[in-house]
């Protein structure tokens, strides 16, 4: 189920066929700061959450596929998408947006609690007192009905109920109806905790780093194979990174946010995916050019360039 708060639509009923979705995202990123872009067609549905700096996470599903993270985002914003989406854009609280973006990573802390031993009303009070950030997933026994109750730091921010339309509801009446149904029919509860990280760095950062490791490995082998060049590769690379610090601060060797050592990348900075990819690829291209080897290196790099052609085109990087 895709859930997005829908109380504050900024704009609605846009047709993806006529839109440049990445440009649309950039506009509303600057306009509203944090929000969600909801995509819906008869065959598929998805959502992308963002803050002022970047995409945070995305979810997509159709009849046969479920995607999350970068794969979902790429599927939704791809210009050649086979789906003709209706797009609505919602402003979200800058604190709550991370809650919705991190829902798939929620961890169960209580599983299959039963009304035989647990009262839902008491469980809600307990989770409030324990300052839960997460949600209670409620399944009504024998009724094919369910509900989700959402908490941030112990405060109930709303719920989603099977008798509603799937979006966030702040109705206390619906919550009381859910509690009443558990008393009448019985039910089971799962309690899930959400960690509010600001970016999906676990999944997307690793993917970006693997691409850049491939690039730097190829470049290192190319430089070391050139017998005319007797300079140390790591020294060359660090000097180039220093030159790029004003534009890409994370490349500063003295802060050690980004390190390439023993053919592996270690990255502990806060730079976004695009800045990370651009900073390193631009550095490699400039260094190859300064060494008068760019045409030869471009040939050596052709397989890598084709493999990540979409990234290079999207960021206007030409090898």
Tell me what you see in this structure:
The chain is α+β, with helices and mostly antiparallel strands. It has three domains: 9-103, no CATH class; 106-193; 201-314, no CATH class. It is 39% helix and 26% strand. It is built from eleven helices and 13 strands. Strand 3 and strand 4 (55-62) form a beta hairpin. The chain is elongated and about 85 Å long. The two termini are 42 Å apart. Mean pLDDT is 85; it is low at 199-205.
Layout of strands and helices, then pairs:
Blueprint: E1 9-15, H1 21-32, E2 35-40, E3 44-50, E4 55-62, E5 66-68, H2 69-77, E6 86-91, H3 97-101, E7 107-114, H4 120-129, E8 134-140, E9 145-152, E10 155-161, H5 172-185, E11 187-193, H6 201-225, H7 233-243, E12 258-261, E13 264-267, H8 273-290, H9 294-300, H10 302-307, H11 309-314
Antiparallel strand pairs: 1-6, 2-3, 2-6, 3-4, 4-5, 7-11, 8-9, 8-11, 9-10, 12-13
Helix pairs in contact: 6-8, 7-8
* Count of alpha/pi helices: 11
The 3D shape can be described as: elongated
Mean pLDDT: 85
Q: Characterize the biggest β-sheet.
A: 6 strands, antiparallel
Task: Give the percentage of residues in beta strands.
Answer: 25-35%
Lateral arrangement of strands in the main beta sheet: 1-6-2-3-4-5
Spans where pLDDT lies below 50 across 5 or more residues: 199-205
Helix content: 25-40%
Specify Rg, calculated over alpha carbons: 24 Å
Question: How many angstroms separate the termini?
Answer: 42 Å
Overall number of strands: 13
Q: What structural class do you assign from the helix and strand content?
A: alpha+beta
Sequence of secondary-structure elements: EHEEEEHEHEHEEEHEHHEEHHHH
Q: Tally the structural domains.
A: 3
